[in-house]
Amino acid sequence: MVQQEAAPGSGGDVAVVASPSDGDCRALAAVLTSGGLAADAVTSVELLLERILRVRPHVLLVDLDMALEYAGSLTGIVSEHPWLRALPVILLLPADGTVPARLEPYVSDILFRPVRPTELLQRTRTLISRRRERQEHRESTARLREHMRRISARVRSTNDPDVMVDQFLPDLGAALGADHLALQVFEDDRVAARSSSWTKEAASRGATPGAPLDQDAALALALTLWKQSSTADFGGDSPGTATARTPVPEGLRTGAGEDWGVGGVVAALGEGDTPFGLLWIVGDAGDLGWSGAMNGLTQHVLGNLAHGLIQAQLISRQHEAVRRLRALNVAKSDFVGTVNHQLRTPLASITGYIEMINDGLGGELPPAASTMLQAVERNTARLSELIENISALSSEEPDPSDHGPVDLVHLISEVTGRAVLEASAGGIGLDRELPDHAVTVSGHRAQLATALGVVLSNAIKFTQERGRVFVGLHLGPGDGRAVVEVRDTGIGIPAEDLPHLFDSFHRASNADRALPGAGVGLSVAKRTIEAHHGSITIDSTLGTGTSVAIALPLLDHAHVG
Predict the structure, then answer these.
(1) Which domains does the chain show, CATH number per domain?
(2) 519 and 504 in contact (C-beta within 8 Å)?
(3) For residue range 347-404, what is the model confidence (pLDDT) as tens digits?
């Protein structure tokens, strides 16, 4: 083993020369040293691997015989030390020699003996240069990939298209080393049209409105690039130079400046089958060093921008739709409120006069007139009930801050107490079974009373004489809910009507005849119960009866305002 005077680590590139011949090693090392390399010579097969791992050379020159000593174990060695895959290897062959098949994957170049010094230096320097270029390319690609990851993350962090573009263009321009960027988004159903630009000299200002570009020509170019999934070079070395590449739009030339050549790369922006924009990436004299990695990563980050712009547009439209719906809801509520007020006033007058006539203040009525007046009174009551139901349907949901503790035992006692007279008048028995302690939920007491009253009133209304109605309260099995149950022995509900009972203005039928009522009460009750984070279910058998279960979360489990 011979160590040349230019020791590894003294600066510059390092080569390891491996040959069984001490004289051969000295001659090769001398040539490399004369060319400015640090050469480390090895004549022992046993020391070769140890020397390579310690010195970590930029190139290895190895004699065929020594290489064959390692041929059987090269796969394992490279697997254990992955960096060896990038080590350039020059195999020294006899004049009539060939590269064994088992060594081919590991050999970068070959030299036949006798070795000419100029050829040795030229081949060695070329391999080292290529290795360095590959390493720099890998590092550059890794940095660019990290830049693009951050750019994509910033795009996803906002739903404001202006903020999105204002962050995107400066970040991408810096990552690509561009002098100027111009983003052109066409009018499209998916996104709003825009023109934005960024210039390196004014980087502190971020993205700015860009000069308008010819949309017809740009759209044709975008369609071509989108179909080919590629980018295109544009421009030339100076503003007046005509080239065979994509011509420079006049607006882009004006925006970039007249004092330097305009050239670079243009890429399409879009999603799905069609594009909706272009990104012009400008570099001085078109010198961007554009590579396959830059192209792929730029296409990827443009895809993220396109998706972000589409999502931002969708969210903007949703917000606008919600705003309009709220405005329509307010207008509807105002209209219904006005109509209800205008109806209540004459209806109250009609009801008052009917009561006075029935009391005999206008004189004694003939029996036929009295019968007709009773029909008017019944229909007036129905109209009054309908107005109240429409008002309830149109009212806004209460603010949860209006909720408070409600004792269901007390509430049910109150509601059933008011219903006793109605049940007795129809010859119906009303039973109730309540706990002897408070069962508390969070809610709006008046609204819960109304919902429970609707259910109880329906049970009484559709139960025949000598029938029975039962109201009970119990706790759900381990789910933190109180369950109010209302059962009756009434006429029941047809199976085909059950799925529609909570639809507004749906009226169940019995024997091909619509049952009385406006079909509003259960809809209001369901909305009220769900606004209290509860549920209401109905089970019924025609001719047997109906059971309604209302479940509400107990106070400890409720969403207390």
Answers:
(1) 14-138 (3.40.50.2300), 140-317 (3.30.450.40), 324-394 (1.10.287), 400-557 (3.30.565.10)
(2) yes
(3) 888 888 888 888 888 788 888 888 888 888 888 887 887 777 676 666 655 556 678 8
